[in-house]
Amino acid sequence: MLCSSTVCLYAAGTSQCDQPKVRQSHHKVRTRGPIGFGLIKALVPEEGRDSSLCVVLLKNPFNFRNHFLLGYVPQHRTFKKDTDPAAFRPICLLDALGKVLDRLVTQRIFHHLLKHKLLSAHQFGFTPGRSAPGAIIQLKDWIHMARLEKKHSVIISLDVKSAFSRVWWPLVLHNLKRMACPRNLYGIAASFLDGRSISLSYGDTVISKDYSIGCPQGSNSGPLYWLLIVNDALEMGFGEDVRILAYADDIYLFVAATGKQNIKKYAETALQKLQEWSITAKVEFAHEKTKLIPFGKKGKQKHPPYCSFNGRAIKLSRQLKILGVVLDDGLNFLPHIQYVRGKTLKILNRLTIARSRRGLSGRVVKMLYKRALERIIVYAAPAWWVGTANQRQKINSLQRQVLLAVTAAFRTTSTAALQVISGIEPADLVCEMEAALYQLKHNRPDPHFLGVHLESNQVERYLPSWAHPSTKHLVHWDQDSPDYDLGIFTDGSKLNGQGGAAFSVFDPQHSGDFQFRLDDHCSVFQAELTAIKQALLWKQQNRPHANFHLFTDSMSSLKALQKFAPKNNLVDDINSLLDGTISLHWIKAHIGVAGNEVADKAAKAASDRPSVDIHLGIPERSLKTSIRHLLLREWQDRWKDDNAKGRFTFNIFPEVKTNRCIDNRQLSQVVTNHGLCPYYLKKFNLRECNCRCGEDVDDDILHYIFRCPLLDSQRSLIRPGQSVLQILQDKHRTKEVKSLLSFLFLHQQDIFEQDPEDIS
């Protein structure tokens, strides 16, 4: 069905199009899809695209309701056959304009729900600032709280059958009306859900049918409609010891009590309420997938309660996978590390094959580890990382497999040495860092990192203004240098760890400087934004009606002002101060522009002021940098420990560095002394042999690199007295070392002399 201009105008609510929101929406629509959106980018100039798109939305009909049943969608977990109707999904193939309108309306409704806090606080999916780790941490907090009260507890995992396909539209509209959804948004949502059809094309036959239930797969509005349905279940009252939590369509019921009979009673009462809700909402629970995991008041529960749901016994499990994390009844999360190990090694095996057969270098494997595999390993680390000795040993054992793939070193090489020569931080420290960052970002109590207490109250936090999207305007700036009667030049600076912001007023001659000292932890970006904000405040107080030009050399600040959702309070404040009398200009720094030079000098002087004038929070990036410095310091302290393994490698690389990567088999032997030589073979009881030259007792790798006369013919650049580090820093000597050790491998039978006692 086609959507008319009347409906589009009704969706907008006014005759004025919300250009910033339209820009954000159509930039996020994928261009690889139905024909239409690409034409917008091709035919409409960039500078007029937003307003032109508004006109297109208001004047042209487009597909807004029709969807197509494309065919069998393989599902590896359920193994559904193509003869099973449940294996088919209606795919949302809206054209580009339909997708833009769908996104616009969905974001407007979300704005209304979030601003007025109409969505349940127990919903962790599809809501900003909430995540799967947060949901798991909430469940853990409930378990610990129950243990403090000396209560047993259970978590019941509930699965909704095809949740998004069972969204009942009348209930969606009912909840929107109950939540006082604005009339124009309610109208477009009702229009979107009215008169929908689904089509199946098979050969020359096309079958169409009207339907009134389910979310279109791939639409922006699908998650919103499901949240409106499940919100009723999350707002139900279950009693003091029963709590509910959801992540999208995954529902978890938590029950605590002093005895297992009470747990059974409370759980079955709550489950009965949920069953009644499911009938009202026209959704269905998959009872065969419902699971229960028990937690004792002091540890594992030896005799857990057995509960039933709708007359069916709930399966008891000692381990339960929740949102990608394996939760065990002992809360040590060792099964989760084992699960991640299997998942990671499966990917690593393919990378290792690619390295040997396709020439994939160790540096590429390292990059893939840092970008992908490490993210898999530390996923939800704030929820499962406890920092016990067992966890540290197992997580570093998992990382060890990656280190061997990167360095191609012998498997007997210590993990500590592998971490240093590959330049990869210990996995347990990375998990600690992820947990600490989460604690700070979400204002968790008593945040700490490696025994260091972190001040969470000083962290910069974004407080949304909840201004209506239609009140926001596009920010324009250019690189012109026009003549002006009133001009202001702004600049921010940070010298010797001290921050300052300043602006200089020209009307048109230099008439004054205004300087502001900032906290030492402030970034240059914060200083630049502060200078712009203070300049606008000065203009508002002293020249409210005058036209003036503001010049800054901070392009990052100007680009931040153009973002629709910058998530920065300074940017929001500046946007609220901008009006039609203000023109923004970017100028290049340090090219002799008089105003910019004056402002730069004033900003540097501001950083030397004796007291702080404006207090700002610690930016997230600076926080990550400082915590990372603590991580590197701890890694360095571990490496300096005399009792640590890898002392041979320590003598070559006494400092840990992340930009180091020894990714060659021969070079790894050189820096670890684990390689093909009599010293190594005898140490690990592999072979009793000595070097035929008889000039060295140890017969280690360094003997063959520098001293063995049997290899003199292979040396031309390497001389005794040189260090391994000097060789590694010279590409020609490095190449010679590789050639020398390759020769040793090929002629080992001639160079190694077997021990006579071993022969006998």
Automatic annotation (TrEMBL):
Highest taxon of the lineage: Eukaryota
Coiled coil: none
GO terms, molecular function: nucleic acid binding; RNA-DNA hybrid ribonuclease activity
Family annotation (Pfam families): RNase_H, RVT_1
Residue ranges constituting the Reverse transcriptase domain according to the UniProt record: 54-314
Listed GO CC annotations: DNA polymerase complex
GO biological process per UniProt: DNA biosynthetic process
RNase H type-1 domain boundaries: 482-608
CDD domains: Rnase_HI_RT_non_LTR, RT_nLTR_like
InterPro entries, per database record: DNA/RNA_pol_sf (IPR043502), Rev_trsase/Diguanyl_cyclase (IPR043128), RNaseH-like_sf (IPR012337), RNaseH_domain (IPR002156), RNaseH_sf (IPR036397), RT_dom (IPR000477)
Name of protein: Retrovirus-related Pol polyprotein from type-1 retrotransposable element R1
GN (gene name): PO11_265
